[in-house]
Write a structure and sequence with these properties.
The protein is α/β, with parallel strands linked by helices. Helices cover 37% and strands 18% of the residues.
């Protein structure tokens, strides 16, 4: 690239056959290093810069404690699972290892491809799927377990979307930030590792969905 050429022009030209060979090797090595830097940047940049979303949602990997807290909220649960904004796929993969058919939606294609590789490497690729998609353009109506790593700006709109789309008995698990209006049925962890679980219930005698409000929380 341009960087390789600029560096290469600064290599002094040596006289003689041996000098010419050394100069040629210098050009090749410099070009190779420059190309490698460009390639590494192309791969690494999506991991450290926000994906283009309606709400800016940067990629922050889930901690080991967060993963364990999510799995705790999934105990005695079954059915399908979706991770909204699945990042590098670690929640989806962890859920698949617990027997869930797990799906991740992520707008960043590099992260999706990396997630698929990780699922294959960990031997759970048959129980996982990863899609490149904007979460606002996807319906989550057929999932019974939903995991969300969101930011405060998106939670009110996502709260309404999930309440409109999800069926009865679905469980929504929020990490890092709770939903603004719902009251959690269960809470575990502390600090950035806190996880809130919300259970959707059908009100008796009505077709509308509502959240069962349980004032006590579990620690």
């Amino acid at each position: 690239g341009a960087m390789s050429q600029a560096v290469a022009t600064e290599i002094p030209q040596e006289q003689g056959e041996g000098g010419s060979r050394r100069s040629s090797w210098g050009l090749l090595v410099t070009a190779g290093v420059g190309g490698t830097v460009v390639a590494l940047y192309a791969v690494a940049a999506p991991f450290v810069t926000p994906a283009l979303r309606k709400v800016c949602l940067p990629f922050v990997p889930a901690t080991a404690a967060q993963i364990q807290n999510v799995l705790k909220m999934l105990e005695n649960r079954s059915g399908s699972l979706v991770d909204i904004g699945s990042g590098d796929g670690r929640i989806v993969i962890a859920a698949a290892k617990k027997g869930f058919q797990a799906v991740g939606y992520e707008l960043n294609p590099w992260l999706v491809w990396y997630s698929r590789y990780r699922a294959w490497r960990d031997g759970v690729h048959q129980n996982t799927k990863f899609y490149i998609s904007d979460l606002w353009k996807v319906s989550f109506s057929h999932y019974t377990n939903v995991v969300v790593f969101g930011v405060p700006q998106m939670m009110p709109q996502l709260e309404k979307k999930l309440e409109d789309e999800l069926e009865c008995n679905a469980r929504i698990i929020a990490c890092r930030f709770p939903f603004p209006r719902w009251i959690p049925d269960h809470t575990t962890g502390e600090g950035i590792d806190t996880v809130w679980a919300y259970d959707l219930k059908c009100s008796r005698g009505y077709e509308t969905k509502s959240l069962e409000i349980t004032p006590e929380t579990e620690s």
